[in-house]
Amino acid sequence: MSALTTSDGRLASFQQGQPPIDKSPQPATGGPPTAETILATAARLRREVGLTFHEQLMEDIYADAARLADRAVTRPGEAERFDLDRSIDRIVTSRVWGFPMMILLFALVFWITIIGANYPSQWLSNILIGTIYPWLNNMADALGFPWWLSGLLIDGIYLATAWVVSVMLPPMAIFFPLFTLLEDFGYLPRVAFNLDNIFRRSGAHGRQALSMMMGFGCNAAGVVATRVIDSPRERLIAMLTNNFALCNGRWPTQILIATLFIGTLVPAWLGGLVSAAAVVGIAVLGVAFTFGVSWFLSRTMLRGEVSTFSLELPPYRPPRIRQTLATSIVDRTIYVLWRAVVFAAPAGAVIWLIANITIAGQPLAVYLVNFLNPIGLLIGLNGVILLAYVVAIPANEIVIPTILMLTVLMTGASGVDGGAGVLAQTESHQTIASVFQAGGWTLLTAVNLMLFSLLHNPCSTTIYTIYKESGSKKWATVAALLPLAIGLVVTFTVAQVWRLIAY
């Protein structure tokens, strides 16, 4: 028999090893607890958890600490335990190998996207333009549609929409699943980890790396991806600079111009490699502009402190293929494609109208091209290119066919399937090169077109997305005009330096 003394000096006896009998006073029902009842309740609860509770708690804490130390610490003379995640991270987050691995991996993703999209894009083009387009024209003739109505609906609206779908859908359907697979695998947080220091020095958020990578598939999707950034100021910086990531609508322009003008400067066996290097160089230049403009915005219009965040590096895990395909195709590809189609249809109508509305016997497009020519030549381009970018604001995918259509209209070049107001279509690089040559294109024109394709205003889908995400017309306007101003300055500078050296 043992005894213990309670707080009020009373003795409570209990058998050794048995819980004591609680003889403490209980609070009166309905009344407030007194100091005596509170102390008595605390003593009772202390007895209920047992006399060894504190010791057991300390033992568990030290045992957990020992397990964590065993995973992280290698003692002298002890063989290092193999950890797959840590072994991979030593490479992909290394100061030496992290960036080369990142560039190599995303170059591989882009290469698969570009190469893999060629066949489905050609297949869609054959169906939508090669088969359905003539059928619609025959149907319109059979129904007795007036020429202007069939031209506006079929040659304008339908053909522009078909071009957007055939050019935009295959790259997105390949790029977004690949990007989502990298996300599921756990690599994208490592990309943010690698780029965090550069973005921090630029006054931006480390997670902007994720939205920038998404922008290489589609800038509108990249803008939506900025939701992962908690700070409104840094999220806005990410929105305004996402346009400097080449979207899939601009890849065809870059690849075609690099192939026709840059690749032909070297022997044929080196042409493909040099062309690819030129396109990758433009993409890297866009990343550099992302850092530079982020630094400028964070010290002017969007001044503020750089926020900190905890970046968790999740364990690597096998990607979930079915869920990845469902998420990337339904939530990203179809969503972005629908927005592009909504804006591309009116653009097709505008293209057809300016090519078929005549003033004094000349199409309206001729007057617009001649008006824009002095500005275009000043910045190393021409009026046809500037007008193509004006009417193709809804979708970058129709820039090249619009340029071909307008060049044929202005020069009368042959060999391209496209009449007045009909988006040009051709599969021959030689034919396209001859059209550009007839339009007076030079190597300077090609180089500045690649630069302007990178540094012009976002498409209307992206501008609208920025407006919806920011809720501000002001920032949507800044997002449209800032890259355009940079593009004009850069192309003007390149043109003047080029001409100064050449002459």
Short recap of the structure:
With 503 residues, the protein is mostly helical. It has helices at 35-48, 53-72, 84-92, 98-142, 147-185, 188-201, 208-215, 219-225, 232-241, 251-262, 268-298, 321-356, 364-378, 383-391, 399-411, 429-438, 443-454, 460-470, 473-502, and strands spanning 2-5, 11-14, 358-359, 362-363. A two-stranded antiparallel ribbon has the order 1-2. Strands 3-4 form a two-stranded antiparallel ribbon.
How many helices? The count is 19
Amino-to-carboxy terminus distance: 112 Å
Poorly predicted runs: 1-24
- Strand order across the largest sheet: 1-2
Describe this structure in words.
There is one protein chain. By secondary structure, this protein is mainly alpha-helical. It has a two-stranded antiparallel ribbon with strand order 1-2. Strands 3-4 form a two-stranded antiparallel sheet. Helix 5 runs antiparallel to helix 12, helix 7 runs antiparallel to helix 8 and helix 8 runs parallel beside helix 18. The longest helix has 45 residues. It is elongated, with a radius of gyration of 33 Å. The N and C termini lie far apart (112 Å). The N terminus is likely disordered.
